[in-house]
Amino acid sequence: MPDIVMYATASCPYCVNAERLLKSKGVAEINKVRVDLEPQRRVEMMERTGRRTVPQIYIGERHVGGFDDLYALDKAGELDALLGL
């Protein structure tokens, strides 16, 4: 399974939903980057993704986007392949 990085904050319901969806797929470890605790990491996230909102999710080297994007990938049947399932 590829490494998963999720830029997140503590109070973000979309972050919680993204984590829940990934765990339901058998993902054991998510490298969460808390941009609310480390403001410089938010700058990194915006430079890396071009987006300001959380979550921002990477599966391996692929930028998936936010929760809506992750959910759409799952509904399209493409998330399992990205996760190597």
Automatic annotation (TrEMBL):
Highest taxon of the lineage: Bacteria
Annotated InterPro entries: GLR_AS, Glutaredoxin, Glutaredoxin_subgr, GRX_bact, Thioredoxin-like_sf
Record PROSITE patterns: GLUTAREDOXIN_1, GLUTAREDOXIN_2
Domain spans labelled Glutaredoxin: 4-64
GO cellular component: cytoplasm
Example of a GO biological process term: cell redox homeostasis
One of the record's GO molecular function terms: glutathione disulfide oxidoreductase activity
Pfam families according to UniProt: Glutaredoxin
Alphabetic keyword roster: Cytoplasm, Disulfide bond, Electron transport, Redox-active center, Transport
PANTHER family for the chain: GLUTAREDOXIN 2, GLUTAREDOXIN-1-RELATED
Family statement: Belongs to the glutaredoxin family.
Function, in words: Has a glutathione-disulfide oxidoreductase activity in the presence of NADPH and glutathione reductase. Reduces low molecular weight disulfides and proteins.
Name of the protein this chain belongs to: Glutaredoxin
Taxonomic classification: Bacteria, Pseudomonadati, Pseudomonadota, Betaproteobacteria, Nitrosomonadales
